[in-house]
Design a protein that fits this description.
By secondary structure, the chain is mainly β. Helices cover about 0% and strands about 50% of the residues. The longest helix has 5 residues.
């Protein structure tokens, strides 16, 4: 019996994240050598969704040997070979729900739409654009959490194109190299009608191949730019 959560795209390709719930697990999910699995992104299967969990340091997991319960676990989605503006139909499910039978609920939260789905009772299907590491969270056990969708910036990258969406006036975006050197910065000003029409709530930047640190206000994410 497999403790998996599955993510499937409209290209009929699926990926799996393996979770082993533990009441003693720390919420920070520090990587444990020999127990946890690091997510290695596939570049061979066209349009396959890449599903993974994230800890506080931004480490991507394909296997969590001790997944915390009653805690929000951030999920990441990478859509291989999809254009940055391409919309994909995603579906989340539990392939073997009996593996979680000791828990009353397994909540998947979409922080963009505000939808909260108990995956023990049904799948969740949604349209998504580009990569995301801030949109979805998983909570094993406990009660569903209230969702504030009023302001949830998301940081995504497709190959070399960095896209930050959902920005509001006053938000500050900065892009740094791993050594800390500032590559670019942007602050959202008050939006007039013309600016709103021109979609100025997004920040875009074409990067050279490499690893970067992107900051949006107090949120930080490590991104990998690849050809």
């Amino acid at each position: 019996m497999s403790n998996d959560i599955a993510g499937q795209s409209d290209y009929q390709c699926a990926d799996y994240l393996e979770l082993h719930p533990s009441a003693d697990a720390a919420a920070g999910m520090t990587y444990r050598v020999g127990s946890d699995g690091i997510k290695w992104f596939s570049f061979n299967e066209t349009n396959a969704p890449q599903l993974y969990a994230l800890n506080a340091d931004g480490t991507p997991f394909s296997l969590l040997s001790a997944a915390p319960v009653e805690t929000e676990i951030p999920l990441g989605i990478h859509l291989q070979h999809a254009p940055a503006d391409a919309e994909a139909e995603l579906e989340f499910s539990l392939p073997a729900p009996d593996a979680f039978r000791q828990y009353a609920h397994v909540w998947l939260t979409d922080h963009v739409t505000g939808s909260v789905t108990d995956l023990l009772r049904g799948n969740y299907a949604v349209s998504a654009v580009g990569d995301s590491e801030n949109r979805f969270t998983l909570r094993i056990g406990g009660m569903a959490q209230d969702v504030n969708t009023s302001h949830q910036p998301s940081i995504g990258i497709n190959r070399l194109q960095l896209v930050v969406r959902g920005l509001a006036p006053g938000d500050h975006v900065s892009v740094h190299s791993l050594s800390g050197m500032l590559i670019d910065s942007f602050q959202v000003q008050a939006l007039n009608a013309k600016a709103a029409e021109q979609n100025c709530t997004e920040f875009r930047r074409l990067l050279s191949p490499g690893v970067y640190i992107v900051r949006v206000n107090n949120m930080t994410k490590k991104v990998y730019a690849r050809r």
